[in-house]
Amino acid sequence: MEICNVTEVTEFVFVIFAFNPNIQYFVFFIFLLIYILLLSGNILIMLTIKADYRLHNPMYFFLGKLSFIDLCYSSVTVPKMLIDFLSDRKTISFNGCITQLYFFHFFACAECFIFTAMAYDRYVAICKPMQYSTIMSKKLCLWMVAATWAIGFVHSNIQTMLTMGLSFCGPNEINSFFCDIPPLIRLACTDTTMIDAMIVANSGIVSLGCFLSVLISYIGITRAIFKIRTVEGRHKAFSTCASHLTVVTIFFGPCVFIYMRPSKTYQADEVVTVFYTVIAPMLNPVIYTLRNKEMKTAMKKLWGRNTK
Q1: How far is the C-alpha of 269 from the C-alpha of 258, rounded, in Å?
Q2: Tell me: the pLDDT tens digits for 142-199?
Q3: Other Cβ atoms within 10 Å of 181 Cβ, number
C-alpha cells in the first residue's frame, strides 16, 4: 500500500451521477419535487405549531424541532445533488466535502436525540399521565433540546476530526451523491483500521444508544397500553405513538444498516442512502399530519382563516 503523509487531493468527484443526460434531467425534476414537498411540509408543520396555542405542549414542541432539523438535515445534501444533476463536472472541493460531512453528522445526530426525547415524552404521557405536566416541564424540554444540539456538536466534531486525520492521495471518486465517512475512508491512502473502528464505535454509541432508548420507552408504552381496559382508550393511546414509531423505524433502520459496520465493507447503498437523507425527511410531515387529528384540525383552521 502506498503511504503518504499529506493530502494531495483537492477535490472529489461524485460518480453516482454518471448516466444518460436525459435520465439525469428526469431524476433532477423528481428530486426537485421531493425537496419542494419536504421544505413546504416541514415549514407548514412549524408554522401550524407556532400559530395554534393548543399545540403549545411538549409533544408538538419536539415535533416542531424535528421539522426544523429535517429541513436543515436534507438541505445539507439535496441542493448540491440537484446542482450536480445539471452540471458537467460533478465535483466538490476538499474543504467543501469536509464541511458537508460535518453538518450532515451534526443534524443526523441531533435527529437521533430528538427522536429519543419524543419517545420519552410519549412514555411519560402514557405511563405517568398524572405526573406528565410536572415531569415534562418547559425547563426540561429546553434542556433536552439544548442537550440534543450539544451532543450533535460533539459527535460531528469527533467524526470530522477523525476523517481529517486521514491522507488522500487518489483516487478521488466518491460513489455517492454527498460526502460521508464510509465512502471517504475507502479512498484514504493510509491504514484506516484504527480510525475506522473509532468511527464505527462513535456512530454506534449514538445510533444504537438512541435506538435502544426509544425501544425501551416503547416497551414500557406497550405494557401500559395493554393495561388500559377500554378498546377506545387503547386505540387513542396507540394512535398518539404510531406516527412517531413509524418515522423512528424509517430513520433508524437505514442508519444502523449503513453505520453499524466497518467502512471497508461499505458498498454503494444508493437506495438506502437516498431513503434516509431525502425520502424520510419528506415522509415525516406526511405521516404526522395524516395520523394526527390535532395537526389536521389545526392546519384546516389555519388555512381556512388565511383563505377567507
Answers
A1: 8
A2: 999 999 999 999 999 998 998 888 888 878 888 888 888 888 888 888 777 787 778 7
A3: 25
* Contacts of the segment 133-136: beta carbons below 8 A, 24+ positions apart: 136/58
DSSP 24: H
Contact 267, 182 (CB under 8 A): no
Identify the domain containing residue 20 by its residue range: 11-307
In a domain, 5, yes or no: no
Please state the domain count of the chain. 1
Q: Kindly list the strands in the beta sheet with 91-93, ordered across the sheet, starting from the edge strand earlier in the chain.
A: 91-93, 11-14, 173-174
Whether the Cβ atoms of residue 163 and residue 180 lie closer than 8 Å to each other: no
Task: Report yes or no on 109 lying in a domain.
Answer: yes
| Separation in Å, CA 220 to CA 129, 162, 165, 211, 225 | 13, 37, 43, 14, 9
Question: Which pLDDT tens digit goes with each residue over 43-64?
Answer: 988 988 888 888 889 988 999 9
The angle subtended at Cα 67 by Cα 61 and Cα 70, nearest 5°, is 140
